[in-house]
Design goal:
By secondary structure, the chain is an alpha+beta fold. The protein has two domains: 144 residues, no CATH class; 41 residues, no CATH class. 43% of the residues lie in helices and 17% in strands. Strands 4-6-5 form a three-stranded antiparallel beta sheet. Strands 1-2 form a two-stranded antiparallel sheet. Strands 3-7 form a two-stranded antiparallel ribbon. α1 packs parallel to α7 and α2 runs antiparallel to α7. The longest helix is centred in the C-terminal third of the chain and has 42 residues.
Length: 206
Amino acid sequence: MAFQIGADIEGVESVLAGFKQLSIGLQKKYLGAAVGAAARSELASLKAATPRGPNGNLRRSVGVKIEKTIVKPWEMTSAGKGGKAVARIGYRRGKTQKGKQHGGNAAWWLEEGVKERTPNGRAFKIALNSTRKYAYLKPLAVQTLSGNAVFLSRIRAVRGKGMFRGWAAAALPAIERRLKSSLGGFLNKARDEAARRAARRSGSRR
């Protein structure tokens, strides 16, 4: 399960109307570049607000994902069909491009906290490989017939830190201001590329 906080940018209707005059491909390309640049401007502050933890994986998982799509029929306004770009900033999970695992799986527990848990049997057992992987478990390890393990009679409740929501309350307005101020420049770049493409097409017909 994941958590997310969204923001709608208002006051840029005229700029978005300018994008609608371009091809969908250019819309997606430059809207994606605009929201990506605005979101990445706050990556450092999110990393600073994220605890390093025992191995630093959570902090390294901080990143931005850009989703570029076409506006669905039920999302259309009077401006009609067009491209859409959404930036998601937060903690990445799953595999990286190199096949390694992102370390964002713990983000939910740190944000929301966990309730106290008790085992169905006599104790929770944590395997040997986990005690080696996480240094803070090593002092708890005990010798058993099958090797080293950790046995816990209960897992105590941990209050959520609310770190992401706290960061978002300060960072989202800054991202919105940056996007508003830069969107016109990306529209100009898109128009310039459209003009270059038109010139190449015109030259090829001669």
